[in-house]
Specification:
It is a single chain. This protein is mainly α. It has 3 domains: about 50 residues, Multidrug-efflux Transporter Regulator, Chain: A, Domain 2, CATH 1.10.1660.10; about 70 residues, no CATH class; about 50 residues. It is about 65% helix and about 10% strand. It has a 3-stranded antiparallel β-sheet. The model has no long low-confidence stretch (mean pLDDT about 85).
Length: about 210
């Protein structure tokens, strides 16, 4: 315990307090000896970084609980990494920097449930660099992260329906080896239709025409 406290730059008393609050996991015990490892040190450094960013100890404990309940990255990615998306590895404090003030236990739990985030040891993995950057940009423009995640959940439903439509179409009219080659065409149709739908929604209403 003394060695861990010294490495983390805190007092043994503070370390004991963190243990009592459940902020760090218990050590591995061999008889009367308690062994701490790099995982404990990483957690202590994360606690220090989040405290510097204005999080409270209670909030950090809630974040840790949400983090530990998340699915492992292998479970989220299933058979392999996304073919066109680039996963991003983040520390908890880096994630907090992306969404300053918006990384709450509720938002973290929602992102984990959606599968946007997964865990890999002491790191968080976001499944898509594009989704991460777009979400962060929306939050910076003033859209609450909770609203971004709620919209993402709805988009997921419609995206799954579109994917089902096109995979059924291609499997009916193309061979299996051609499906991946034709995949960009399906995406182009969806992109064009979404663009035209946005035009219809965002175009000013001309109102009733006069005589």
């Amino acid at each position: 315990m003394e060695e861990l406290a010294e490495a983390a730059g805190i007092t043994v008393r503070t370390l004991r307090f963190y243990r009592e609050r459940g902020l760090i996991p218990p050590p591995r015990r061999e008889g009367r000896i308690a062994w701490y490892d790099d995982h404990h040190l990483a957690r202590l450094r994360t606690i220090a970084a989040l405290l510097e960013r204005g999080h409270t100890l209670s909030g950090i404990a809630d974040l840790a609980a949400a983090f530990e309940s998340g699915r492992d990255v292998g479970e989220v990615l299933g058979l392999g990494e996304p073919t066109e998306e680039t996963p991003v590895r983040l520390t908890p404090e880096e994630l907090a920097d992306y969404f300053e003030g918006e990384v709450t236990p509720e938002n973290l739990a929602a992102a984990l449930d959606l599968g946007y985030l997964a865990t890999d040891g002491d790191e968080i993995v976001h499944i898509s660099r594009r989704l991460l950057d777009v979400s962060a940009a929306l939050v910076k423009e003033g859209v609450p992260l909770a609203a971004v995640l709620a919209a993402g959940r709805e988009v997921r439903v419609h995206a799954d329906a579109l994917a089902s439509l096109f995979t059924d179409l291609l499997r009916t009219h193309a061979t299996d080896k051609d499906i991946e080659r034709l995949r960009p065409l399906a995406k182009s149709v969806v992109d064009a239709e979404l663009s035209m739908a946005l035009d219809r929604r965002l175009r000013p209403d001309p109102g009733p025409s006069g005589d």
